[in-house]
């Protein structure tokens, strides 16, 4: 992980108005730490895997992570092929706008803002509940969840205000710790030969993979990858963007996919193919900690409970960094007030955008607390449901944008990178989106009105992009900056 003792100030970009770029020397490893931390590996293993097993396809659920990783690999091929042709660090909306036009790009920007605000809010609610549960479990006082959330929000805001490399160091430590404890559990299960039924073979048996509700299983699996796609948002702070961003994207996807598949398979093996569904349904929130206590010891279970909290904090910090850079980029392109696009002269950070992100998060949590919402059953499930659909929509649009862009410009004539892989990714993501929309009420805590409302919210945000493009013709003027003259075609 690269370090910089005295980061240089962000340099203004000349043009019709003063615009700023962030600076840094992040390598692929540092970016991987941030985006994998956003995926919250321990949270997925301890929280989503038991639900995916119980509500999805049972012992065959680990195979869903393989399917999800393959679909996202197709997406990543086109996404990274386009990286060298999109100089803007706006990630999704820059890619969509470059390929499909400003209206689609601005609509994608609004969907991205909603998605990352809601996913960060979901984790803010969850972490407040878990901190209180952890403190009271060790004899401490019981306090309202929102007090703990306020503390986490303040610490996140402080780190987000500083240079990005401080966050990357913190995330690196937390990520290594949470991944390490799960790998210890995986190794213990494997070395002990699993439970009474031995090591599971369900993930390679079609009858098991297709049993139960594989569609629901795939839905929960794809949600576990949210965050890996944000590598491009750190373009301006990368050491060598045209190489670092593709490497970080592939590496993050590989790490997340292998880790989820291995660890969920180990959990199934620990209980047995015939017993895992009942065990997961009986105690979805505690089965992984119980497994750690049985196979590694009570000390490991205690450590895992603590790291569960730090995993959520790492996810919050990573999402804060991503969201603040979206706000920064949108300020620079005229979509949001220009003040949001200012960078700190010392820290070379999007300090105004970071403060805005902190304020929005605080406001959202205040509304939820005043409404008396449950931090897990309502705040987490509702907001995470909105974010899951929004991110898949953005990835689907990005795949389509890649195909259209390269067909139109001929900048890259490699069929696999510019047509076949992104085309397959678009098909896979479209199918996943259908599953998500059909089961959106489930993601929203079982409420059909909330599910419909979430879908309408995202649809209106996307459609508003074309209205915004007409109302503010100078907004996001660089979305279509890439032209055939920018680069020589690749054969």
Architecture overview:
The protein has a single domain (28-479), classed as Amino acid/polyamine transporter I. 69% of the residues lie in helices and 1% in strands. It contains 18 helices and 2 strands. It has helices spanning 28-39, 41-55, 62-81, 92-100, 102-137, 145-161, 164-191, 206-209, 214-223, 241-271, 276-282, 287-295, 298-332, 351-370, 375-409, 415-438, 440-443, 448-471; strands at residues 12-13, 19-20. Strands 1-2 form a two-stranded antiparallel sheet. Strand 1 (12-13) and strand 2 (19-20) form a beta hairpin. Helix 5 runs antiparallel to helix 13 (298-332). It is globular, with a radius of gyration of 22 Å. The protein starts with 11 loop residues before the first strand and ends in a 20-residue tail after the last helix.
Concise summary:
The chain is mainly alpha-helical. It has 18 helices and 2 strands. It is a multi-pass membrane protein.
Helix and strand topology:
Layout: E1 12-13, E2 19-20, H1 28-39, H2 41-55, H3 62-81, H4 92-100, H5 102-137, H6 145-161, H7 164-191, H8 206-209, H9 214-223, H10 241-271, H11 276-282, H12 287-295, H13 298-332, H14 351-370, H15 375-409, H16 415-438, H17 440-443, H18 448-471
Antiparallel strand pairs: 1-2
Helix pairs in contact: 1-7, 1-10, 1-13, 2-9, 2-10, 2-11, 2-13, 3-9, 3-10, 3-15, 3-16, 4-5, 4-15, 5-6, 5-13, 5-14, 5-15, 5-18, 6-13, 6-14, 7-10, 7-13, 12-13, 13-14, 15-16, 15-18
Low-confidence stretches: 1-18, 481-491
Q: Rg, please?
A: 22 Å
* Total strands: 2
Residue share in helices?
Answer: 55-70%
What's the assembly state of these chains? single chain
Order of helices and strands: EEHHHHHHHHHHHHHHHHHH
Percent strand? under 5%
Total tally of structural domains: 1
| Superfamily (CATH H level) name | Amino acid/polyamine transporter I
CATH architecture: Up-down Bundle
How would a textbook summarize the main sheet?
Answer: 2 strands, antiparallel
Structural class: mainly alpha
Shape summary: globular
* H/I helix tally: 18
N-to-C terminal Cα separation, in Å? 34 Å
* Mean pLDDT over the full residue set: 84
Numbering strands along the chain, what is their spatial order in the largest sheet?
Answer: 1-2
CATH class: Mainly Alpha
CATH fold call: Amino acid/polyamine transporter I
């Amino acid at each position: 992980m690269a370090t910089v003792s005295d980061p240089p100030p962000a340099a203004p970009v000349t043009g019709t108005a003063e615009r700023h770029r962030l600076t840094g020397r992040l390598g692929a490893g540092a970016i991987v730490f941030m985006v994998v931390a956003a995926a919250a590996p321990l949270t997925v293993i301890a929280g989503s895997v038991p639900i995916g097993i119980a509500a999805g396809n049972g012992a065959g659920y680990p195979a869903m992570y393989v399917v999800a990783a393959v679909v996202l690999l197709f997406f990543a091929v086109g996404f990274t092929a386009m990286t060298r042709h999109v100089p803007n660090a706006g990630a999704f909306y820059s890619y969509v706008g470059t390929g499909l036009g400003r209206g689609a790009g601005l609509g994608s920007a609004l969907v991205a803002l909603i998605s990352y605000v809601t996913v960060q809010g979901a984790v803010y609610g969850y972490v407040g509940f878990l901190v209180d549960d952890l403190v009271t479990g060790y004899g401490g006082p019981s306090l309202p969840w929102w007090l703990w959330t306020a503390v986490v929000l303040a610490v996140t805001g402080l780190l987000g205000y500083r240079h990005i490399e401080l966050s990357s160091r913190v995330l690196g430590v937390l990520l290594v710790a949470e991944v390490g404890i799960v790998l210890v559990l995986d190794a213990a299960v494997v070395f002990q030969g699993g439970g009474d039924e031995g090591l599971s073979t369900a993930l390679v048996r079609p009858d098991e993979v297709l049993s139960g509700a594989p569609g629901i299983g795939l839905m929960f699996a794809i949600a576990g990858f949210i965050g890996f796609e944000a590598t491009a948002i750190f373009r301006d702070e990368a050491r060598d963007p045209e190489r670092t961003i593709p490497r970080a994207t592939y590496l993050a996807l590989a790490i997340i996919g292998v880790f989820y598949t291995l660890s969920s398979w180990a959990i199934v093996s620990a209980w047995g193919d015939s017993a895992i569904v009942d065990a997961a349904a009986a105690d979805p929130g505690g089965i992984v900690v119980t497994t750690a206590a049985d196979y590694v010891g009570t000390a490991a279970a205690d450590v895992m409970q603590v790291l569960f909290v730090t995993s959520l904090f790492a996810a919050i910090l990573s999402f804060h960094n991503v969201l603040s850079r979206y706000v920064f980029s949108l300020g620079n392109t005229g979509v949001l007030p220009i003040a949001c696009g200012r960078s700190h002269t010392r820290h070379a950070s999007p300090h105004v955008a970071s403060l805005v992100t902190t304020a929005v998060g605080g406001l959202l949590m205040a509304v939820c607390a005043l409404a008396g919402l449950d931090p897990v059953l309502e705040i987490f499930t509702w907001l995470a449901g909105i974010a899951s659909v929004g991110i898949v929509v953005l990835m689907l649009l990005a795949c389509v944008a890649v195909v259209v862009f390269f067909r139109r410009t001929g900048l890259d004539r490699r069929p696999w990178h510019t047509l076949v892989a992104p085309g397959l990714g678009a098909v896979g993501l479209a199918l996943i989106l259908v599953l998500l929309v059909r089961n959106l009420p489930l993601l929203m805590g079982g409420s059909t009105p909330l599910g419909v409302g979430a879908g309408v919210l995202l649809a209106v945000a996307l459609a508003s992009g074309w209205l915004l493009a007409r109302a503010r013709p100078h907004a996001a003027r660089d979305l279509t900056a890439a032209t055939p003259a920018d680069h020589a075609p690749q054969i």
